[in-house]
């Protein structure tokens, strides 16, 4: 069984992944931590290195998910390969940081490799407004997130809504994070677990 949790920066993906893994006794899977040789270059010259950076991320995540699916484990995944293409690469293109030629090349590579992986049995989308995202980002206090602009978060939200609105790969559960606090409220977590089990196993 493969559950994936998706959503904008600060939506609560990691928290929900950890809580569900504990409850369902599934393996939690987080983004593969590897030294990205393009990251420093990207931040010094985004337009020059955007394509290289995204290709590295795409390859890294593809290899990780293939390896996990070959192991045939019950897992909960924090973020997916789909977000690399439909959210972050597309946003770099929209911002003028990736050329049309590079974006087309990237998209073609993505379409070629995505057929070699199975979509999750259930995709959970944490929908959150920008004020909720900002509140969560401030609470966790990561230095490198302190400069994230509101319009950037808003733009990513638009990308998520467009992708989720067209998602046809499998079962989808949308959770309204503005009105849920599964980290602090056990009742909210219980309701989320109930909805997940209903989607996966038809339990009501």
From TrEMBL:
<dbReference type="InterPro" id="IPR002624">
    <property type="entry name" value="DCK/DGK"/>
</dbReference>
<dbReference type="InterPro" id="IPR027417">
    <property type="entry name" value="P-loop_NTPase"/>
</dbReference>
<keyword id="KW-0808">Transferase</keyword>
<keyword id="KW-0418">Kinase</keyword>
<dbReference type="InterPro" id="IPR031314">
    <property type="entry name" value="DNK_dom"/>
</dbReference>
<dbReference type="GO" id="GO:0016301">
    <property type="term" value="F:kinase activity"/>
</dbReference>
<dbReference type="InterPro" id="IPR050566">
    <property type="entry name" value="Deoxyribonucleoside_kinase"/>
</dbReference>
<feature type="domain" description="Deoxynucleoside kinase">
    <location>
        <begin position="3"/>
        <end position="197"/>
    </location>
</feature>
<protein>
    <submittedName>
        <fullName>Deoxynucleoside kinase</fullName>
    </submittedName>
</protein>
<dbReference type="Pfam" id="PF01712">
    <property type="entry name" value="dNK"/>
</dbReference>
